[in-house]
Amino acid sequence: MACARLAALRSVLLRSIGASPRKIIWPATSRPHPALGFSSAPRLVENSSSMAAAGTEVSCGLLAGRHDAYDGIILDPESIPQSPATFTEALQVSMAAWRGAGVKGVWMRLPPTHAHCIGHAVDAGFEFHHAEKEYVMLTCWLPRDVPSPLPPNASHQVGVGAFVVNEKREVLVVQERLGPLRGKGVWKLPTGLVIAGEDITEAAEREVGEETGIKAKFDAVLAMRQAHGVAFGKSDMFFLMALKPEPGQEKVSFQAAELECAAWMPLDDYVALPTHTPLNLRLMNSCLAYLDGSYRGLWARRVQSGFKATQDLLMFGEQSLSGGRDEDAWLGLVK
Fold first, then answer.
1. What percent of the residues of the chain are helix, what percent strand, and what percent coil, each to the nearest 5?
2. Which are the contacts of 321, defined by CB distance < 8 A and separation ≥ 6?
3. In 10 A of CB 92, how many CB atoms?
4. To which H or E segment does residue 22 belong?
5. 182: Cβ–Cβ under 8 A, 6 or more apart, which residues?
6. 301 three-class SS
7. Concatenated DSSP letters for 170-219?
8. pLDDT digit string (tens) for the chain, length 335 residues
9. Which helix (H) or strand (E) segment is 90 a member of?
10. Cα distances (Å, whole numbers) of residue 25 to 13, 32, 42, 44, 154
11. DSSP codes, 61-89
């Protein structure tokens, strides 16, 4: 069986590089590669007459990677050559071999040091997926007779807002120095974007601390809002949360780089402001209902998902805790 697979892959590779007289040399210790059924990739070398003339051999191994759960390959960035010519040849040989082995989707992560390879990958059939400061991600769907089901880039950015009221029934509010409300003198609740890997509850606590210097702890999710076409065509998910200030948190020190001002404002004065939009008024209704005890909002607890060692953040209504079960024992939830 191993010999048959070697022969089949050899045939595919030879077809991919044309009819020029090359030969494939396999290491003597070849074992199944994690991406193609072989642990060691073949080396393509020029024929003996060419090697004699040049004095060296030309090596072009398959790009290394690992299988994903969908019959695809996630390439190892360390295996990608920096030389455009070597990269192009290795990619051509690899794609032919992957198609012959039934590989479907290929994910290629290129760091800034390989930015010059992006155009060559696009010419070979790769498409842009997303980019971060550290890399560009490209994908290629290899089957020619099946539409690509590869997932698109993230569709949403996630934002949070914080409703923080002290014992004097004053609400924490800010005025923005930057953004769409710049220079308009509009008072609003502290808001901000969630950082990758951060729980929305943690994001709300962080934003309040950064913008106002007030330490406050999450208590409930009061409302969620979804909008489309917000940032570079992406959708936006916004979570409004109730936070309780820690004892002694009275002095406000606002973030001058982003804010014009921050203050504790009597709640009735804030509600009566003429600058509230219909959406803001509906959100404020949830805040007031929470404050008078007629609305609890959503709890948030971390729970073991069962698919990985870490815990996920679960948000759920109060009725989920009914049935005489202890809150923290419900489905293994932990604080």
1. 30, 30, 40
2. 299, 327, 330
3. 15
4. none
5. 176
6. strand
7. EEEEEEESSSTTTTTT--B--EEEPPTT--HHHHHHHHHHHHH---EEEE
8. 434 443 444 454 444 444 333 333 333 333 333 333 333 333 332 222 222 233 222 345 789 999 999 999 999 999 899 999 999 999 999 999 999 999 999 999 999 999 999 999 999 999 999 999 999 999 999 999 999 999 999 999 999 999 999 999 999 999 999 888 888 889 999 999 999 999 999 999 999 999 999 999 999 999 999 999 998 889 999 999 999 999 988 899 888 888 999 999 999 999 999 999 999 999 999 999 999 999 999 989 888 877 777 888 998 887 645 544 444 443 333 33
9. helix 84-100
10. 12, 16, 6, 7, 43
11. PPPPEEE-TTS-EEE-GGGS-SSHHHHHH
Tokens of 322: 């009914």
- Reference 209, options 267, 256, 270, 254; nearest CA is 254
Residue 124 backbone zone (phi > 0: left; psi -120 to 50: alpha; other: beta): alpha
Question: Which amino acid appears at position 113 of this protein?
Answer: T
DSSP per residue, 103-152: --EEEEEE-GGGGGGHHHHHHTT-EEEEEETTEEEEEEE--SSS------
Tokens of 210: 């950064």
| The token pair that represents 288 in the structure block | 């007031």
**Tokens representing residue 155 in the block:** 């569709």
Tokens matching residue 280: 């803001």
For residue 235, the one-letter residue type is: S
CB 100 within 8 A of CB 8: yes
